[in-house]
Amino acid sequence: MKTESVVTASEETLARPDERHSGAQKVVFLCFTEPAEGTSAEDIRPHLDEHKAWLSAIEASGALMFAGPMLGADYRYSGSGLLVLRADSAAAVRRIADRDPFHARGLRVFRLVPWQINEGRIEVHLTLSDSSATLA
């Protein structure tokens, strides 16, 4: 069962930082994704390759910053996931999330939260001799 995604007028407003905070003031969107009620791993499995292809496509477009599963206390997949998405508005990010094959088929549901990045550090190590990169 596919859930209908409704875009509100406020979602059309361009994302902008809360300038009362200092730092990078970069607004991105957290997309928390969960299995829809009654959905099993067996329901999702046939669509996994299509989901991964969709992730690769939005990564190549620049819209996907990070994505991955949530882990339980035992460091095993909990069933939940998180995507960090770049978009100009909540409406634009909703259109991206709606196209996830899992969401489009009603197998998973998602919740979007704007997030302002102010502080942090990301290190990337590039090795020229073998053209490799690692995230530290």
Automatic annotation (TrEMBL):
InterPro entries per record: Dimeric_a/b-barrel (IPR011008), YCII (IPR005545)
Location of the YCII-related domain: 29-115
UniProt family annotation: Belongs to the YciI family.
Official protein name in the record: YCII-related domain-containing protein
Organism per entry: Pseudonocardia yuanmonensis
